[in-house]
User: Fold this.
Amino acid sequence: MSETPFRCGWVALMGPPNAGKSTLLNVYLGQKVAIVSPKPQTTRNQITGILSEKDAQVIFMDTPGVHQLRGKMNRLIVQSAWQAMEGADVIAIMIDADYYARTPEALARDIGPFIKPIEAETRPVFVIANKVDLLGDKSLLLPLFTTLHESWPKAEIFPLSALKGEGLPQLLEALKKALPEGEAQFPEDQLSTVPTRFMAAEIVREKLFLSLKQELPYLTAVDIEAWEEDPVTGHVTIHAVIYVAKASHKAIVIGHAGRHIKEVGQSARKDIMALLGCKVHLELWVKVRENWVDDVSFLHTLGLGSQV
Assistant:
C-alpha cells in the first residue's frame, strides 16, 4: 500500500478589505505574523506564513485587500496583491459573509475586480465566507452563496469563522488536497519569511491603527531607524520613527504631554518582547513628511506594496 504523497504549494489569500485574511493566517499558524485591526486596509504588504504538517506544507500569502481607492500608495498596495495571485498554486478569495449577507448590494461592487480574473482560472479556487458566526439570521447566507456560485461556478465555497475556529479544519484539508505534490520548500519550524525588524514596525503600526480615529492611521507609516542588541544581556534597543503627513497629525499621535505615544509604545513594546523573547527598550519618534503617501521612492524605501 503506497503512502500518501507529500504536497507543498502557495495559497494566495485575496479578497476585499476587512475580510479577515490576516486573522485566518494567524490562527492557522498559532502565532501572530500579520497585524490585525477592526479597520479595513490594515495590511499593506504581502505577508508569507508557512504551515508545516506531516502530509503537506501550505505557504500562505496574506495579501492587502483589493480596493478601488486612488493614490500612489494604494496602487502599490493593490499591485502586490495581484502579484501574489500570479505566483500561487491555489487561489482563495475571502469575504466578510456577515457584511455581504446583510448588504448584498455591496457584494457586486467589492468582488467586481475578481470576477474576470477568476473566471479564466484553471488553478483551484476557493471562496472563503468568513464571519458567519456574526450573522444572526443564517437564512441570509443562502442568497449570498447563490450569488457567489453564479459568479464562480467552479469554485468551492467554505463558510467559516476564522476568529472562533469554526470550519478551519475542513478548509485546510481541502487546501492541502489542492496543492501539487512536492517536497517542503521551508524548514518545518519556520513560520514566516517576515524579518523581525519589519514585524516590530508592523506591531507599532497596529497599535496606531487600534488607537487613532478615522482616517489618521492610513496617513502614518513606521520605519525602524536603529536596532541594537546587547551582546552581554541580549537586550534589544529599537529606535522607530512614525511618519505623518501633516504637522497637525504629529500633535495627535504624540497626544497631550506625550500621553498617547507613550501608551502606543508601552503596548507595542509588550508585543515585541513576546516576539523576540527578550527585554526590549523601544524609542518612538514622530516626524512630519508631507505627502509621503504619494512619494513613490519613499514608499519603496518603506517596503510598501512588497512581499516579506
Remarks:
- The longest strand covers residues 220-229.
- The CA atoms of residues 98 and 132 lie 6 Å apart.
